[in-house]
Give the backbone structure.
Amino acid sequence: SRNGRQEYEAGPRIKGAKFFDVDDVSSKGDLNPKDLPHMMPTKELFAAAMDALQIQNNNHVIIYGTQGSSPQFTARTWYTFINMGHDANRVHLLEESLNEWVGAGGPIEKDSTKVSFLADDLNLEEGEFNYVAQDASNFVNMQDVLAVVNDIMAKTKEKNAANVIDKTVIIDTRPAGRFNAEAPEPRQGVRGGHMPGAINIPFMDLLDSSSTSKTLKPKDELKQIFTKAGVDIENESTPKIIVSCGSGMLACLVAVALEECGRDPKGTFVYDGSWTEWGLDPDTPVVK
């Protein structure tokens, strides 16, 4: 499997680019007792990482990846920056990849370098950071999702599904085979199937198959996909959309797509633990 840190260090990279590792800058140890992958960092850890990268709150941040890498990494990084408190108008996703940048004659660095830090080496004890971060917003945990799922099951039983908590919709972005428990989960011990009431919109359906950089389809096509799946993306009619995936990464890509379609991001939430957490727990309700 590819290693983004090694690829960045070996080069090429966009001139002046810094490396952000969503797996490294994440909650671990006592903050993550279930040992789930790439859980959102504390505001202290994020602020320390920004200081190490010499990123300030008023900087514009442009996020890019390399050709062939999954868009989950760039989408998760974009979602992380915005929801840890960076001004959303100053966080940007490069639509194409490093390869197109090189092809267009953009300035690059070819010499090898080292990533400036590992999260474990950062000093979080002093608590004085130049960067001002906030506790992660627009994420939900298992208890939040369980409350919605229990309400869905109760209202479905009463044939009153239209009145689910705040008309909340759950989107699951995993491939249909995993959603329907017809294909195995990649993580050992994780059950197949889906949450009661969840709507399946596989992330691959949102990507332009003609693009080598795995960019999103045009806005009109994205809107049609959501509508066909039965998701009203308007904030007035669907105040809250919860997006889940395998481990909280590709859910962020759906968040990008929803915002591209004009949805106010304040009403979109990512389930951080996603199916890894839900499917590992023997007590969560699962439909197969």
Notes: The two ends are 30 Å apart (CA to CA).
